[in-house]
Automatic annotation (TrEMBL):
Main localisation: secreted
Pfam families linked: cEGF, EGF_CA, FXa_inhibition
GO MF annotations in UniProt: calcium ion binding
Keyword Glycoprotein: yes
Location within or outside the cell: Secreted
Record's protein name: EGF-like domain-containing protein
Family indicated by similarity: Belongs to the EGF domain peptide family.
Keyword Signal: yes
Domain (EGF-like): residue spans on this chain: 130-170, 171-211
Amino acid sequence: CKLNNGGCAHICAERTIRGHVITKCQCRAGYHLHSDNKQCIGTAYKSPNICCSNPNRCDHVCINNPGSYACACHKGFFLKLDERSCADLDECFLLNNGGCSQLCLNTQGSYRCACDYGYRLLSDGKTCQDIDECAINKGGCSHTCQNTAGGYQCQCPRGYIMQQDNKTCEDINECETSNGGCEHRCVNDKGGYRCECGQGFVPNANQTHCSDVNECEVQNGGCGKHTCINTYGSYKCQCLDGYRLDAR
């Protein structure tokens, strides 16, 4: 072995058997002896599985490397500075609201999109679309339903007033306030009202005031050849001399 390392590529080992010195070539770790018993050929190095020796080294995944190891995290988590612990990744903060059109709700290892009240989530799981509440039974409105962004509103026609439930319209009795502006009689109708005049009167053009009817203008009020005298709201017949008024 002292001469040219015994011709061995790596290690020359000597031992004495029955007085004779026998040399044998050996290889360093990772190599094996060639068939010429002198040269060494590289052997694939199989390192010990460090991950298996301590499965609690990493929070999630332990990757075995030659002579060492590395920790990795599941999808939706990131590796902390200690290079072994995993923390939840807030996709809503890092990924432009998670791509959600409205609400992004972060969950452990993931996230999900949600919608504001009055919207529904489409099949893409990200886009919110307004719900037309009026399309189903008029949204519960007794009269008119007006759809709005994210909601709806019940509306009442003229002559009605909205009740506390914000859905039911109740007729306004206009006659209860100043007799509806009518000079004589106020008649309430559904969604409105009308003025009526007493006997002997007709409505003016404004339909609220009444004018006296001059009954004497039509066939002398039925007084015949005698005198017809118009009065406010009525009339009377007056007989000529020598006549008296029939009780009829």
